[in-house]
Amino acid sequence: MADIQSTLAERGETYGKFIDVAGLSQGVQEMMHRGRNWERLRSDQREALQTIASKIARILNGDADHIDSWHDISGYATLVEDRLREDSLRRQHVIASG
What CA–CA distance (Å, rounded) separates 23 from 73? Predict the structure, then answer.
């Protein structure tokens, strides 16, 4: 049990209090869900945006200079970008061969 307490203390120092991060993250996510296109997004787009909201909340409540938080945001955005590029190439190939 001491190991998890140590981990939680370390995360709290880096990201801020979990309750504060959760409140801000959920607020941002609620706003995103109100967006006109939310239901049109694919699952990876919604998941990336929700995860990015959590990372933003950590930045705003904790150590804003924690490089991993910024790196994670770019990573989730890149995953969606890569999938969109693959989809676009696939569509171009179908059009060209069709």
Answer: 19
Are 69 and 23 spatial neighbours (Cβ–Cβ below 8 Å)?
no
Q: What are phi and psi of 34, to 5 degrees?
A: -80, -10
Count of CB atoms situated within 10 Å of the CB of 25: 21
What global pTM score does this model have? 0.88
Res 93: pLDDT: 79
Checking if the pLDDT of 98 tops 80, the result is no
Helix axes 18-33, 43-61, angle to 10 degrees: 140
| pLDDT tens by residue, 55-78 | 999 999 999 999 999 999 999 999
